[in-house]
Every structure is written in structure tokens, then in C-alpha cells.
Amino acid sequence: MAHRSDPFERLLGEAARAGTYPGAAWAVGDARTTLSSGAVGVLDPERPGEPTLPDTLFDVASLTKILVVWAVTGTLVDAGKLDLTAPLGSYWPEAAGRPLAGATAHHLLTHTAGLPLRANLRHLYGSDPQDVRDGVLAEPLRHRPGEAVAYTDRAALILGYLAEHLTRQPLRRLAADRIWTPLGMAETRYGPLPAGLGERCAPTEYDEEGGAPLRGTVHDFSTRLLGGACGIAGVFTTTADVGRFLRHLLLPEPGAFSAGWTAASLRVHTGPLVPPRGLFWHPAPGTEPADDVWAHFGFTGTALWVSPARGRWAVLLTNRLRLTRDPGPLARVRDVFRTLAFG
Fold first, then answer.
1. Which of 24, 107, 297, 309 lies in the 20 to 30 Å Cα band around 141?
2. Can you give the residue ranges of the Beta-lactamase-related domain (predicted)?
3. Are 65 and 232 in contact (CB under 8 A)?
4. Does residue 252 have a cis peptide bond before it, meaning omega lies within 30 degrees of 0?
């Protein structure tokens, strides 16, 4: 745990007092252990008696793309069940004859498939999950695959659908069976959370329909539309569990995705296109690809980093969305946090 001299605690505590977020939990470690961890602030400014704790559960938003989709995809590649370079329409009947047919899983993982930038699922396709799936897979592309890099939630949504097609299992089960259970991530799950766990969860944005901040229910509207679990978002977890996941990237354990998948993913796959992308991972802001510090962020205020070259990982979970949608203050805190963690 952190001591008063811990620079991470000083940085994150000052940011909580400045109103960047109500609370935060963090952990930094190497391949074998956690070097610094702790929590600062409160779960909700309206309940100042409830501090954020090291085992607080956070809605990690787009970190789901790493903790589920990227990881599960790795197990499929490792098993020879998925060729990243094969056109989707050549082996996936739902994609055949549609605009997406010529794109590959590699295009999806590098955000170069040409998909629409916004989800807009309910507006475009309604509320039936099968109608949403059909509509997403039939949507025209913005440009030919491979021409440009543009981050979109739809890439992870479609890869989640693909994983379900290849395995005939729902994403919830795939994540638990292939990733979270083998890595000992006992606190990690898709929501909605049961009442007892919801009390340990950091609330996010105020929900007009419910008349209270969301707590234990995923913030992302598209994911809520799809029952709380999809490739876009939906995972709730703790810093300790994310640390277990990131340690596996540095020192793999049997049973989950391989070292080869990690190594293949943490390098630039987009050539001269900008911004540079690995497979779902990207070079951390403020670094160059040669620095070998890779990151992924979540809209609710979450972040993770890993650097094989430095043998170091870091995770920062906040619920900044409880206070603001302005990403600027937290982005500045993340930059300092990353510098402290990786030098």
C-alpha cells in the first residue's frame, strides 16, 4: 500500500481535491509484484463518508476492449481458429455479401476497417439486439479498409460478434472461461452488478431516468441497450485484477493468451498512417512507439499501460465522469502518472 511519501498518492490525492474526479485507485508493478498501490478520494462527493478503497469496483468502459475482446481474440489466434488477414466475408456468413466482407480482423484491431465513427445503435437500428447486430454488420464503410486510422467502438463490437460466431458462446462466458478465471481475476465481471457488489462500485454519471448516478450499471448507452455485455464496454473490475491481467503480458501464465499474441500486438501495425496503432493498443500519449509504452483508456476515467521493454505495468481507475465529461484535467494527470510509472 502507499505511504505518505508515495508520489502516486500525492499526485492523485491532489487531483481528487482539485475536482478532477471524486476518487481514484491505482497500482503499478512489474512482472512479479505490485510496487505501489492505493486509493484516494471518495466514491461520491454527495456521500463524503464513503472513501474510495483499493478494492473499489469501477466501470472501466473501453478497457473492456482489452480485458475481453483483445484477450479473447488472442486465444482464437493462438488456437488457429482465426486468421487475422482473411477477409471476414470468406468465413463468416453474416459478413458475406456486405460492405464489411472485404475487411479483416486485422483491420478491426487496428481501427482501419473504415467503420462509422459513432455507434448510434438505437437511433439507427432500434432496441432489438438481433436488429442491432444485423444493422451493424450491414452498415456501409466510410472508406476502403486500410486507408485511414479512426478509433470507433464498432470495431470491438464486431470483433465480439465474431468471437461469439467462432465459438458459439456468449462473450460473457468467453471472457470468464478464457481470460478472467485462468488469470485469477475473481473480482472482474460484466454488469449489471448485484446489490452487494454495487455498494462497492464507484458511481458514474447522473442518470435522468433513474434519478441517481449510475452505480453497478454500465454507463455506456450502447452496452446497456445490448443487455450490459458486449465488446464496447460493460466490465467492472479492480486495480488488483487489472494488475493480474497486465502481469500476464510480462510473464505469461498457462491458460490464457500467449506471449506471442502480446508481442505481435505491442508493435505498430499501421505503417505510415497516423495515429500509429498496435492491435487495439496504442503508444501512450507523450511517447513514441520506440519508447515501448502502450496504453488504452476508458471514457469513465480509466487507463492502463504496459511496457515489456521496461518490465512495468500500471493501472489508474477513476470515476471522473461523476463530475465532468471534460477529458482535459484527467489527461494531464494521466501524463504525470505515466511519467512516474515508466520514467
1. 297
2. 9-327
3. yes
4. no
pLDDT for 243 equals 98
The mean pLDDT value for 305-311 works out to: 98
Domains of the chain, first to last? 5-64+170-340 (3.40.710.10), 80-169 (1.20.58.710)
Sequence-distant (≥ 6) Cβ neighbours of residue 72 within 8 angstroms: 163, 171, 174, 175, 178, 179
Rounded Cα distance, 229 and 223, in Å: 6
The Cα–Cα gap between 109 and 180 comes to: 21
User: Position 276: which residue type?
Assistant: P
Is the pLDDT assigned to residue 4 strictly greater than 70? no
pLDDT digits over 25-60, tens only?
999 999 999 999 999 999 999 999 999 999 999 999
DSSP state of 291: G
Q: Is the peptide bond before 192 cis (omega within 30 degrees of 0)?
A: yes
**Torsion angles phi and psi, residue 58, rounded to 5:** -120, 145
Please tell me the distance from the alpha carbon of residue 264 to that of residue 96, in angstroms, as a whole number: 28
pLDDT in the model for residue 1: 45
For 141-146, the CB contacts below 8 A with 24+ separation are: 141/99, 141/100, 141/103, 141/113, 141/114, 141/115, 142/114, 142/115, 142/116, 142/117, 143/114, 144/114, 145/102, 145/103, 145/104, 145/107, 145/112, 145/113, 145/114, 146/107, 146/112
Q: Is 90 a catalytic residue?
A: no
Q: What is the dihedral of CA 125, 126, 132, 135, to 10 degrees?
A: -20
Q: pLDDT of 210-231, one tens digit each? A: 999 999 999 999 999 999 999 9
Cα distance between residue 240 and residue 244, in whole Å: 6
DSSP annotation of 69 reads I
Average pLDDT over residues 248-267: 97
- Cell (9 digits) for 141: 464503410
* Annotated catalytic residue within 37, 62, 222, 307: 62
